[in-house]
Amino acid sequence: MSNHSGSYMLNEVLLLMEQRGVFTLLELPRTQELVLEMIRISKSYDCNQGEILDEIGERLGICYYCLSPSTDLDNGVCERYRTEWEKPSTGRISDTGDRNNG
Ligand SMILES: [Zn+2]
Question: What is the pTM of this model?
Answer without folding.
Answer: 0.81
